[in-house]
User: Which sequence fits this backbone?
DNA sequence: ATCACTGTTCGATGTTCATCGAACTGTTTT
DNA sequence: AAAACAGTTCGATGAACATCGAACAGTGAT
């Protein structure tokens, strides 16, 4: 039984807090990768950022608490997934504009 | 002679820094008001935020340095304008998504 | 049971930042 | 020239935050 980590209701998500979560190079890159809507493993080394795993855990928590992601627990591994459809309904076009803008 | 305040080239604007500038309640509200593309006076009291004018000057500077706005100096009054067309070309859909999302 | 593995939590540290008040710059008015 | 006006800049202060290492918790393997 995997009682997942709590996420805020999308209706309660504040745009300022969401932008705050996105305004970090590591977190923005995570969101860009997650934009495909699929779950991605949290495996710290897979992401290739030059920070400790505790720092990655902090960023994952920030994203989840801001309402951007959800965590899927499976045994001793965790996956992270963007709440894409909910986000698109609440903030139309926002995620899409990030994907394009982060390219350059 | 009004040599306006310097703005970064839009090509040099970093999405993370731009999001950082937007991730503040006062600055986001300013951008939403400025989204019509027209110049708006900086007159501190016109904006109705409960902060001192030096704080407003700080926010105006943050927006300009992030690449979001330009300042138009006219005598002893200043106006601020969103670089709407440049932003839309560089980050398509971003500003539009903020206007919608800030409503709720 | 013990060990290895994955990820979180906690406390500490240094940095960044929002805010304020005071001083300053440039402009218009008297 | 002097005073009033619109904004900026500066230094200080307190809060928020990114990062780290160590300790912890839960799960799977031996």
Assistant:
């Amino acid at each position: 039984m995997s009682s997942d980590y709590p996420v805020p209701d999308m209706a309660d998500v504040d745009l300022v807090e969401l932008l705050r979560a996105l305004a970090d190079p590591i977190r923005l890159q995570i969101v860009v990768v997650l934009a495909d809507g699929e779950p991605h493993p949290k495996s710290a080394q897979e992401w290739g950022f030059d920070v400790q795993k505790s720092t990655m855990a902090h960023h994952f928590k920030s994203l989840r608490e801001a309402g951007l992601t959800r965590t899927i627990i499976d045994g001793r591994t965790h996956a992270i997934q963007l709440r894409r459809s909910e986000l698109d309904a609440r903030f139309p076009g926002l995620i899409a504009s990030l994907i394009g803008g982060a390219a350059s």
